[in-house]
Every structure is written in C-alpha cells, then in structure tokens.
Amino acid sequence: MPRIHPLSDLLVNKIAAGEVIERPGSVVKELVENSLDAGARRIEISLEQGGRKLISVSDDGHGMDAEDLARCILPHATSKITREEDLFAIRTMGFRGEALPSIGSVSQLQITSRTADSDAAHQVSMVGQKVEPLTAAARPVGTTVEVRQLFFNVPARLKFLRTAQTELGHITEQIARVALARTDVEFRILHNGREVQHLRATGDLRSRIADLFGAELAASLLDFTRSERGLEIRGFAGHPADSRSSAKWQYILLNGRYIRDRFIAHATREAYRGLMEAHRQPVFFITLQVDPATVDVNVHPTKIEVRWQDSSLVYSQVLSCLRDRFLTTNLSPRYQGASAAPASQTTDAGLFGSDAAAPHIDSADEEAQADIEATRRQQVRQSVADFFRRHPAGSPGPSSGPFSGHRPSYSGYGTPPAAAPADSPPTPRPIPPADPGQAAALQIHDCFLVTQTPDGIEIIDQHALHERILYEQFSAQLAGGSLESQRLLLPETLDVTPDQIELIESHGALFKQLGFELGAYGPSAIAVHATPSLLRPERVNAFLRDALDRLSDRQTPASAEMLLNDFVSMMACKAAVKAGDHLCPEEIQALLARRHQVHRSSNCPHGRPTSLILTLSDLERQFKRT
Ligand code: ADP
Ligand code: MG
Description:
Layout: H1 9-20, H2 24-37, E1 42-48, E2 54-59, H3 66-71, H4 99-105, E3 108-114, E4 121-127, E5 130-131, E6 135-137, E7 142-148, H5 155-160, H6 164-181, E8 186-191, E9 194-199, H7 205-213, H8 215-220, E10 222-228, E11 231-237, E12 250-254, E13 257-259, H9 262-272, E14 284-289, E15 295-296, E16 307-308, H10 311-327, H11 343-349, H12 366-390, E17 441-444, E18 448-453, E19 456-461, H13 462-479, E20 485-495, H14 498-506, H15 508-513, E21 517-520, E22 525-532, H16 540-552, H17 560-575, H18 585-595, E23 611-615, H19 616-622
Parallel strand pairs: 1-8, 12-14
Antiparallel strand pairs: 1-2, 2-7, 3-4, 3-7, 4-5, 4-6, 8-9, 10-11, 11-14, 12-13, 15-16, 17-18, 18-19, 19-23, 20-22, 21-22
Helix pairs in contact: 1-4, 2-6, 6-7, 9-10, 13-17, 16-17
The structure holds adenosine-5'-diphosphate and magnesium ion (MG).
The site of magnesium ion has 5 residues, from α2.
C-alpha cells in the first residue's frame, strides 16, 4: 500500500483556511475585498458577538449567476485570473480563489446573489464539507455572504478567539485599512443590530481619516504628494510634535491594498529622524499607485507584503517627499500651559505660531498635548542633570567657555580638562560674526537663552540648538566628501579590546570620512593620528568610546548610511556647548544668527525641541489678564 496519497478537498481547504482565516477580522477582510472586486459602491457589514455568531457582508456589486454561485466555493476557483501572465499584473484584491472555500470549511456559509440580467437571486450554502443544492431567493442586484458559527469545527482556533469587543476591534481595523484605500466606497458597520460606523463615500482621504480617527487628528495632518517615474505618492503625515507611543496610526496603501513594507517603514523613520525622539512613533497615511506589473503581490497568503521591482525608487521617493514637506513647514512647538485656554480659543490661535500653513493640534487632543508636555519636562530635567554632572558641588565654574579647543598649541587630547590653562590664547570660535540686526538674548542658568519674538518670547536650549547646527554643518561637509581633519603632532593612544580593533579596521573608511586617522597600536590599543577639527580634544575619547559601542551593538544592524548618520549625531552632541557652559554675548548672538541658516533648527538631532515659544497671549492667559 503506498504511503503517499492526495489530500481531500476538505483538508486542502482547512489548510488554506489556517493561512488566511485567523479570526473574524480575516473573514471580513476577505469578504469586503470580494465586494470591492465585484465593483461595489456600498458595503454593509453586520456582525453578532464580535463576528463569532454572524458575519454578514452585503454589497451592490455585479453579483453572480447560478452557475458562478455553484463554482465560487470550489477550491482555487476564481474569475480574476486565467493565464500565468495575469499573475504578474494583478489589478484585483483577490486572485487565489481560496477565501470562500476556506471560510466554508470552517463555518456555516450561505451566499445569496443576483446579477443585473436576472430577475431572481440564487442561494448556495455550505456547512463544513457539505454543499447544499442551489435554491431560488430574493434580493436586489449584488451579493450577501453570511458566515455563521465561525470555527465551529476547529476547536483550536475557537479557543484563541478573544472577547466580542476585542474581535470587533480587529474587524474595524481591517475595515479601516480597506476604507482608507477606497474613499470612493461607502461602508456601514452594525454590531448586534446597532450601527457602529458609517463611512460615507467622499473620495477624499482627509475626510475618511476624520470619519475613522476623529476630526482633530485629520485636521492636524500635513498633506504631501509626489509623482516620479510611474510612482505616484499621496498622503498625510502627522506633525513631528504629535508623536505617538504606538505605530497604530501608520497606514501604507498600495494600489488600494493595505500593506506592510520595510522599505517604506525605513523611509519614514529616516524622514522623522531628528524631529522626533527615537522611541516615539509618527502618524502617517501613505497611498501609492504604481503599474501593477512593477510589483509582485503574490508573496504572502494574505497579500500583506509585496516585492518591488525597484525598491530603492520607493524608498528614496517616500523619504524625499516627507523630508521636503517638513523642510517647508515651521515645526517649532508652542508652549502648552497647565491652564491652557478652552479648546476653541486654542484652535483659533493655532499652536504653531503665525505660520498659517502649519497645522494646529486642538487642545482637545489630550494625548498630543500630554506628549508635548512630557517632552518638555524631560528636556528640562535633562538639562539640569547635565549641568550638575558637569559642575558637581565645589567644582570650578565653567571658566574656559564652550569653544576652548585652544587648537594652535594642541598636541594631544589626553590632557585632563582641569589642566586647561586659564591664560590660554583666545579660542577660535566655530561660529561666524553675529548679525547686528538680531534681537538681544539673555542667557539664564548658563543653560537657556531667552529672546524676544514679534509676538512673544522664545526660550532656547543652548545645547540642543548648537547640536543641531553642528549636525547640519557636519552633514553639509560630509556631502562634499569628509569632515575637516586636524593632524596631531604626537599620536595619542586609546586602550581598546582586540575585537574593537577589528571593528575600527573594518570601518576604516567610515572613520576616515569623519576626519579620524586611526591605527592599531599593539594588540589592545589604537593610535589616534588625526581627529575632526570641530571636535574638542577632551571629547575625542568619549566620542570614540560611544562610536565603538555603537559598532558592537549587533541588536540594531545598520547600513553604512545609518551608521554615518548616527556618528554625526554623536559627534554633534559631543562637540556642542553643554548646559552649564557660560556663553559671552558674541557667542549667544552668533548661535542665534546661525539658527536661521540651518534646516530643522526646531529640533536637536535626537528629536528633542531646541526652543519653546511663549506668545504674549499665552503670558496674558497665565497672568489671568484675559
Ligand atoms: P478570489 O477572490 O481570490 O477570486 P474567492 O474565494 O474570494 O477567491 O472568491 C471566488 C470567486 O467568487 C471570485 O473570483 C468571484 O468571482 C466570486 N465572488 C466572491 N465574492 C463575490 C461578490 N461579493 N460578488 C461577486 N462575485 C463574488
Ligand atoms: Mg477573494
């Protein structure tokens, strides 16, 4: 007797169901996609007990005649593709012919349908393996698919279903994904007979976002669009100050299909990098249209992943599209007092100053507000902590100033900072002369700068701002080759481990680009022959230590570009003035003047804000004058 035998249809279907039907939400996704493929303009989804008891999807699409109705539940039966070539230019949501037979194998399935050229409807049902004979029925043109007692014959799956509320959440998420991609279709969702969502067909993505996630969020989004080499990108991105703790509000929609994509995800991280703290998540809705022949959707059973013909085009276009949008937007956050004005007032004033193009987050958006405040508090704590770390009780004050590299006579970076001679020659300052027209600024606690703006005051974090300026300066230098380098008269040595020597050698080009010249010096030390000119000598060691830590961090493997960017931020941080550095008036003026020459000066490279604006009306409100 042979050991190998073909699987029964029921088993084949159940295996397929295991892949595509995980929970009620997956059934809804498959049925709604079928309705869209049938050209529906209106889809009604009715659920009972989170979809466990009943999932019913009705549409006004083209329907099926008796013959097709009998066939639609056969495995691998589809009307959407016929030839092999079709597989490489998919224009429909479905094409595998798996959903209906899979659903039928794990539930009680009933399909009623009528086409335009028939005056009667037909009905087919399937319970587990058993297909009932076709019967006549009544309904207008279109299709209704009813799924009862999902997983009644798959106890393992049934056990994993959650509460009705949780399953309903998964269902509405699936519908949101489709609804964002198809704003031209109307959706209505009922749960236990009650309407829970009604999404009207407006054809407008912003209003669909408003219907799904609230008008507040929708109004605060920045729109973007770009069309390049057959790739059309359109969408909305959240303001960097409106970051979230979860990636829940991130949607990528390709040719009407919700997808997950690591290239686009990486591009968005890059675009927000430096504008948002690393652990926070942006909000975005990105829709892409491409020729279906340039993307393979047959990679994953639920088609959630795709393979691009030209992934670097997708990456670079999404990145530059978002980047350009942020560069043309004023991103400075405005102060959010504890006793903020009523929502209406705040909305009218706008939270982003006088820039009319900038979005505003209504004070009713409590989450966003809490986020901004938390960031601000964190920033102040950090500055104070930095200050005390630098100046423990009894230590000498910051007498030598922030730019005391005293380069001319420098012969190594090992000199302890305390030994910096008080009578050192005037320091070369990496800051150009100040603009005489610039408003005067006051330094407070050797930490913040306060200046007057046309309609209020601005408080600037000196370290964060200088860090951003240096970051941009380094980036600009790198774009033209490598960072300016300074040779040491006598090489300095730094103790390292043998594997760190290996890391330095394998990343030789990277260090060279940054202005370092490093060489092995025995088995457990390196010799430093040259350092970047803008990095203060006493900070070289600390930078190299951090750089080596980053290189040996195998948890987050990085491309050469990402590493370079990380190193540039680290160097900007090390080279910048710190909280606690006393600045002379010329330095303050120069720092402020520089700010208008760099991009993204509203945030330091780690994404923390560099400044905070308090308008006169904010102040008046705080003093209860209004
Ligand atoms: P696929 O969508 O991959 O073709 P399905 O199992 O989901 O496979 O559906 C099988 C076929 O049934 C479809 O190709 C389509 O012809 C038909 N069908 C399913 N749902 C509908 C519907 N709502 N309206 C019209 N035809 C439908
Ligand atoms: Mg389908």
